[in-house]
Amino acid sequence: MNLEKTNKSLLFFIAKKEFKMMYKSSSFYASSLFFLLGAALAFIGTDSWFNAGLSDLKPFFLNIPFLLCVVIPMLTMSVWSDEKKQFTDKLLFSLPVSIRYLVLGKYLSLILVWSIMLGLSLVIPLSVFSLVYFDAGSFFVSYFSVFLFGAGIISISLGLSALSSKTEINFLLSFLTVLFFTLIYPLTKNLNFPILLNSFIGYLSFSSHFESAARGLLDSRDLIFYFVLMVLGIELNVFILTKQRNVR
C-alpha cells in the first residue's frame, strides 16, 4: 500500500516537473505554432461551407492526422533524449518507482500540453460560429476524437523517442512511423488486394479511423483503436527503458 502510494505521488511529481520543463522548452512553442497555423490553413481551405451558410467541416478534420504527423514528433522528440544527454535518466532509474510510473508521468505531462494546444485551436472554428449554422454536438464529438487520436499518437511517439539520445533521429522515427500508418490505407485501398488484407490494412491505418470522427460520429471500434494505441505506446516505452536500464 505504501509503495503504491509512493508510486502515485512520484507519478504526479514527475508529470508536474515535466510539464514545467516542457512549458519552457522551444519544442512546445514550435509544435504549438505549427499546429495552430496548420489548423488555421486547413480551416480556411474549407470555406465552401461559409458560402453556403452551412457547416461541413469534414475536410478540416480529415487534414488533422496529416498535421499530427509533424506536430506530435516535434512535441515528443526530446522528452527522453534530454534526460540521456544530461545523464538525468540514471537519476530517474534510481528513484523508488517503477519504470511504468516514470513513463506515465511523462505521458501525463504531454497529454496536458496536448490539451492546451487543442484548446487553443478551438478559437479558430468557434470564431465563426455566429456566422453560419454549426451542429455543435457533431463538432465537439469530432474534437473529442481528435484529442483521443492525438493521445494515441503521443503514446507511440513517446515510446519511439526512448530509442535514441539524438532528437533528430527520434523525430524522424516518429514522423515516418506516423506518416506510414496514416498513408497506408489511402495509398492501397484502390489496389486489388484480397478483401481480408484490405480490411486489415484499413484497421491499422490512422486515417481510416478518423473518417467517422470527421463526420461527427464516435465509433466504438475507433475508441478501442485509440486506447490500444495508448497502451501499446506505453508498454513499448516501458520495454525499451527496461532493456536500457538492465544494460547499464
Gist?
This protein is mainly α. The protein has helices at about 1-25, 25-45, 50, 60, 65-75, 80-85, 90-95, 100-120, 125, 135-160, 165-190, 195-205, 205-210, 210-215, 220-245.
What key phrases describe this protein's structure?
15 helices; globular; 248 residues; mainly alpha
Explain how this protein is built:
By secondary structure, the chain is mostly helical. It is 79% helix and 0% strand. It has helices at 2-23, 26-44, 48-52, 58-62, 64-76, 81-85, 88-94, 99-121, 123-126, 136-160, 167-188, 195-204, 206-209, 211-214, 220-247. It is globular, with a radius of gyration of 19 Å. The relative contact order is 0.14. The model has no long low-confidence stretch (mean pLDDT 81).
Give a topology summary.
Layout: H1 2-23, H2 26-44, H3 48-52, H4 58-62, H5 64-76, H6 81-85, H7 88-94, H8 99-121, H9 123-126, H10 136-160, H11 167-188, H12 195-204, H13 206-209, H14 211-214, H15 220-247
Helix pairs in contact: 1-8, 2-5, 2-8, 5-10, 5-11, 8-10, 8-15, 10-11, 10-15, 11-12
